[in-house]
Structure formats: structure tokens, C-alpha cells
Amino acid sequence: MKKNTVLWIIQGVLALMFLFAGGSKLVMSAEQMQAPGPIQFPVAFIRFIGVCELLGAIGMIVPGLSGIKPGLTPVAAAGLIVIMIGATVTNIVDGPAPFAAFTIVLGLLAATVLWGRWQTTRAAR
Q: For residues 40 and 51, what is the distance between their CA atoms, to the nearest angstrom?
């Protein structure tokens, strides 16, 4: 399989995951977003993370499909990595800890896109 095809598959998976995750953070009520446990994030912060996840999902697909500013895809991947670091730490501290493995995998997939697309856009210069 070609590198470009693998990157597009990963980008598609990430886009779907973050569209769902970000969209749910924007449509859930404040009561639904309050998880049991010691860490309680403000609703505005959770909604902000949801918007960032949606923008990251868009950044995984739109620049490559449109050909406009393809260098934004690695930037979107970097932003998603930061979000996944925070999600991993939150899952380890506040639980459920097994979800940390899932967020680590998503972060590693985003890192793969960051590296692969950064090389591609750098070589195109």
C-alpha cells in the first residue's frame, strides 16, 4: 500500500472519530457532560475542546481534498495530539484508565499524519 493511501485512511478514521467526539460535546447538555470523579471541567472548556476537535477533523480532510493550504493538515494533527495528551492524562487520573489506551492510539495516529503530511508538504516546496 502506498504511503499516501495509508495516510488518507488514517486521516479518514481520525476525522470520523473527532467529528463524533467534538459534535457530541457540542450537543450534550451540561448535566450530561459532568462526569463523576474528582476532575470537573467547566462546560465552556468542554465545548471549546469540542470545537477544537471539529476543526481538527475538518483539517484532516478539507485541505487535502481542496488542494488549498495542504500544510494545514499537519497543523490540525498537532492540535489533535495536544488534545489527546490532555485526554490521556485525564483518563489516567480520573478514569476510566483503560480509555487512556484508546486516546494514546488516537494520538499516535495523529502523530503519524503529522509526520507523513509534514514530509509531503515540506518536499513540495
A: 19
42, 47, 109, 123 from 17: Cα distances, Å: 23, 16, 11, 29
Mean pLDDT of 88-101: 90
Q: Do 25 and 53 contact (CB within 8 A), yes or no?
A: yes
Q: How far is CA 56 from CA 41, 63, 96, in A?
A: 21, 11, 24
pLDDT band at 124 (very low <50, low <70, confident <90, very high): low
Bond preceding residue 96 cis, omega within 30 of 0: yes
Q: State the chain's maximal CA–CA distance in angstroms.
A: 49
Q: Are 73 and 50 in contact (CB under 8 A)?
A: no
Domain boundaries, the chain: 3-123
Contacts of 43 (CB under 8 A, 6+ apart): 30, 33
Taking the whole predicted model, whether its pTM rises above 0.85 is answered as yes
Contact 109, 10 (CB under 8 A): yes
**3-state secondary structure (DSSP) of residue 22:** helix
Question: Which amino acid would we find at residue 120?
Answer: T
